[in-house]
Amino acid sequence: MSVVEHRFGPYGGQYVPESLMPALLELEQAWVAAREDPGYRGELDALLRDYVGRPTPLYHAQRLSEAAGHPIHLKREDLNHTGAHKINNALGQALLARRMDKHRIIAETGAGQHGVATATACALLDLECVVYMGTEDMRRQKPNVERMGLLGARVEPVEAGARTLKEAVSAAIRDWVTNVETTHYIIGSCVGPAPYPALVRDLQRVIGDEARAQLLEHTGRLPQRVIACVGGGSNSIGVFTPFVADATVELVGVEAAGAGIETGRHGAPLTVAGIPGVLHGAFSALMQDEDGQILEAHSISAGLDYPGSGPEHAWLRDSGRARYVAVTDDQALEAFARTSRLEGIIPALESSHALAWAHANSPSELDLVCLSGRGDKDLAEALEHLARRA
Amino acid sequence: MTGIERIAEAFASSAADGRRAALMPYMMGGFPDLETSRAIGLAYADAGADLVELGIPFSDPLADGPVIHAAATAALRAGASMEAVLGVGASIAERVPVVVMCYANLIFARGVERFADALVAAGASGLIVPDLPLEEAPEMMTACDERGLALVPLVAPTTPIDRLERIGRQARGFLYTVSLTGTTGERSGLDGGLDEIVARARAHTEVPVAVGFGIATPEQAAAAAEAGAQGVIVGSRLVRAAAEAGDPASEVGEIVRSLATALA
Predict the structure, then answer these.
(1) Taking burial as the number of CB atoms within 10 A of a residue's CB, which of A13, A256, B137, B176 is the most buried?
(2) Run of H or E including B52
């Protein structure tokens, strides 16, 4: 394939200020050249192997399977260096930035995992790094804020709006509009203007490529269902992509139902399926009021606390290839505690949404769940909520 | 008279009066509240504005700096709806041509055709959509052309020549030429190279070239005119005055008067 998709069905596009248009074209051309360049591919693959620790294991979680009543296999993205799938994308884009001779990197972060991954890649490649983060998320994810500082990144607090991921993305885009000639924006999910949704997907599909081969090797079959959490949707698009052509495999994206879909306090634009619109440069499913003002999302998990979604997900939904469901804060917390107790694995609150849905929805012949990240960053927040419920 | 004709006439009469450039102050509709924003728009007209740029408040204005972002947030909190803001526009349009600045999502939420109808009903002459580049604009362009509304495109200092040519050819009303690479907001000085930015824009379009972003003082307005701009847009300076002044309409009137004097 020699083109980069700008549209997924009606979704996607480039709804950005004119200042950024040349940079998006430059990025697209750089990506097309890089992905066909064995030098780039070789350097990235070597780093993914020797530095990140890929391939990550596929693990048959026997005790979770018993509790659920059907087999569950976990793709262990939590075992990546920096503790989540975000490093796959951050390293790939940081290498790309260096090829484009851009030595200043900006990023946004919600849960802090993408910020840490980007700060890590920048430390490794000697690039300047600025990470925008809402102050509410800085409170919820303090250890990651400290990590980014230690790695040499500057964390820019964002005070606007609900002080979470949406405003962090907006602040990063404003920085990019201003400093576009020297700066590359490493967006953390498969959102934003083209070519980002395709670029991030291409860099994250390693999750699904590995998992598909590993599952065939371990079990001799494909999964009945592939299940992953969806905020912007990068771990899910990464694990879904290699299975899209496997018609028998059901793809399930799990969004944040927050306090409950009916309360309006959630982060589930794909599940609710209201009128689509433009946020952060792409036309996609989003949470908005009837005038078109963007609504604040709500989730216990900072990484799912986002009112938008990747445009390819919106198209996978409309075309019937994937379906999108949502689980509440409480259900995610239960899965967080259950997975810790039964498997000795503390999952990220984001990934806990996918685990919760797999657990609650039997039967299935075989579930592949993407365990997108580790939960250490969530300990304070999760323990406080669990104590309140006890 | 169509909106496109009305904008052309405003630029032509400014030039015929011997003024150096047409003055187009920006305001945030519904800020600090609906009635004050109406008074601000009328004060602009009284003080010598040739056209008024009317912002519709949006929750996530990516092209705007902190002053206009905060004004949008405050306007929404004060309950400004699109209908009400277009109502303010209708009052101003009785005096001077109004060019509406609106982010793409607000337009799509209503539907492109319905939105264009609402602009016509409010007497607006043109439309600026800061997050609708050339590639995404065809549907909006058709809807505007069918109604005689000017869809005003933006060009930036980063816009390469071949792209500038395409944008300049499609421009209606005027070409909104961004003076700097960045978001809206006051700057202490203008970037060097304004002469070149304006000359480049003028060489690639038939419509007047108006310069905006970063122009706040009478000196900067005069410098933009000196560089060859046929229109000057001032935004954040006025929105800040509307936020800070005890009597916003009178304060912004003073500022617009001083800007108009600098362009006389």
Answers:
(1) A256
(2) strand B52-55
Chain A CB within 8 Å of residue B192 CB: no
What pLDDT score does A141 carry? 87
- Domain with residue B129: its CATH number is 3.20.20.70
Give the residue-averaged pLDDT of A309-329.
98
Start-to-end C-alpha separation, chain B: 27
Residues sharing a CB contact under 8 Å with residue A226, sequence separation 6 or more, in sequence order:
A208, A239, A240, A243, A249, A250, A251, A252, A367, A368, A370
Contact B167, A19 (CB under 8 A): no
Tokens of residue A134, six digits: 């809402």
User: Could you tell me which chain A residue has the CA closest to the CA of B105?
Assistant: A278
Put simply, the answer to whether B105 touches A160 (Cβ < 8 Å) is no
Nearby residues of A250 by Cβ (< 8 Å), 6 or more positions away:
A224, A225, A226, A323
Q: Does residue B63 surpass a pLDDT of 80?
A: yes
> Cα–Cα distance between B230 and A145 in angstroms, integer?
49
- CA–CA separation, A113 and A140 (whole Å): 12
Chain B residues lying within 8 Å of A278, measured CB to CB: 103-105, 108, 131
Interface of B with A in 112-131 (CB under 8 A): 130-131
Output Rg (C-alpha) for chain B, integer angstroms: 16
Q: What share of chain B is helix, strand, coil (3-state, %, to 5)?
A: 50, 15, 35
Whether the complex's predicted ipTM surpasses the cut of 0.85: yes
Q: What is the dihedral of CA A289, A295, A299, A302, to 10 degrees?
A: 150
Q: Which of A318, A320, A361 is nearest to A224 (CA)?
A: A361
User: Which two tokens mark B106?
Assistant: 């607000």
How many domains does chain B divide into? 1
Q: What is the pTM of this model?
A: 0.96
Q: B151-169, pLDDT tens digit by residue?
A: 999 999 999 999 999 999 9
Whether B164 has its CB under 8 Å from any CB of chain A: the answer is no
Number of H-type helices and E-type strands within chain B: 12, 9
